[in-house]
Amino acid sequence: MFRVKIVLVKVKIRLARKSDIKVYTELLQRTYQDTYVDEDLGFTKELFSKEIFNTDDTQKYLRGNLEISDKQKTWLAFVGTKLIGSVTIADKGEEFGMRGFYVRTEDQGKGVGKKLWKLARGFAKGKDILLDIYTHNTKAIEIYKQWGFLIDAKKKEFYRRWPEWPEGIKTESVYMRYKQVEK
Predict the structure, then answer these.
(1) pTM, entire model
(2) Which residues of the chain have pLDDT under 50?
(3) Could you tell me if 29 and 50 are in contact, meaning their C-beta atoms sit under 8 angstroms apart?
(4) Least CB-packed of 56, 78, 96, 182 within 10 Å?
(5) Is residue 116 a contact partner of residue 161, using CB atoms and an 8 Å limit?
């Protein structure tokens, strides 16, 4: 007979603070390396290095995600002092845009993402939620589909590249939409 030991971990979720920039940068840099590296596409770990995540442009973008207002929220999930997940959602007028939705690889499958998604969906006040995602991130695309997102057929695929990447490196991305209201 096997015995299974279940360890329950207390996850605390709170709104982001400007002072979270260091742990937020580390979370995103690590999850990008865990999620997006694909040698066949030319996506090496170096494209998502600490140096790239600490450039002025990237830091400006990440600090912008940590700005909290009546139009934008970022929730961070912690176990103790360790940041394990995040989501940013912003009111874009007719719809909400969701970005910065990450859960550390080793903490996936434990319900953290579902809790963050529930907060983001609630903040969207019944409006549609739009996100864009790299097409080679098939695992996340399938999760979003399970949550009710669909590929947005009205928006075309596009290629994304970071200014810090070598010339010629880019990745295909698509938009996904979660309809909260029928029009």
Answers:
(1) 0.90
(2) 183
(3) yes
(4) 182
(5) no
